[in-house]
Amino acid sequence: MAAPDFVPTEPTQKLRVYTSPPRREDSWTGDRPGDYAGPPPKGPALGTTGPDAGYAYRLVRQFDDRLHFGDVERGDAVAGCVAVAMRRAALVGRAPVVHDLTVAFTMFGFFDPTPDVALTRARSHAFAQIESHHHYSERRQVVDAVDEDSLRQPHGTIASRYEADWRAQFIDDSVMTDSSDGHGHS
Fold first, then answer.
1. What is the pLDDT of residues 109-139, one digit of tens each?
2. Mean pLDDT across the stretch 15-43?
3. The dihedral of CA 76, 80, 81, 83: what is its sign?
4. Range of the domain at 82
5. Is residue 3 part of a domain?
6. Considering the domain boundaries, does residue 149 fall inside one?
7. Of 104, 116, 149, 161, which residue is 20 to 30 A from 88 by alpha carbon distance?
8. Which is more confidently placed, 48 or 143?
9. CB 101 within 8 A of CB 63
10. Is residue 129 a part of any domain in this protein?
11. Is the dihedral of CA 14, 15, 16, 18 positive or negative?
C-alpha cells in the first residue's frame, strides 16, 4: 500500500507491488442463468435501454429559462420529457444530449408560451404525477405514445410538425387526448 513520504521505511524492506491475477485461457461467455441471449425484447412498456440516461436530468437546467409548464408541475414535465429524450438517445445507441431534450420539450409544447388548448388539457392529464415512481406505468404510456419515426427526425422537422399539428407526432391517441372529451385514460 502506498504511504506518504514522511512515513519512515526500512531501506532494505521489500515493497509490495501490484500483480495481475493469472490470465484465463478461455474467453468470457454469458452462460449465467440471468444472462439474456440475443437482442433485448421489444414491446409496450419495455423501454429502450441506452447508456448514461441519468445525464439528461443534468441537462434540463439549460432549459429552465425557456420552459412554460402551464398546468403541469415542473417535476412531472421534466420526468416525462426526460424519459422521451432518453428513448430518443437510446434508439441510436448513445447517451442523451441537449438535442434529445429539445425534441421532447418541443413535442409536448413546453417551449410554446401559448400552446393549443387541447394539448394543454391532454398533457395536464397525461403528465399528472408521473414524476413519482408510483406512476411509472403512466410515464411509460407517455413515452410509448410518441411515434418512434418522429423521434428519429431532426429538431427542425419536429418543430415544423408541432406547428402544423402537434397530434401527428403521437401514435397513441388515448394518452395525448383531452381527458374531458371522453377519450383520455383514467
1. 999 999 999 999 999 999 999 999 999 999 9
2. 74
3. positive
4. 55-181
5. no
6. yes
7. 116
8. 143
9. yes
10. yes
11. negative
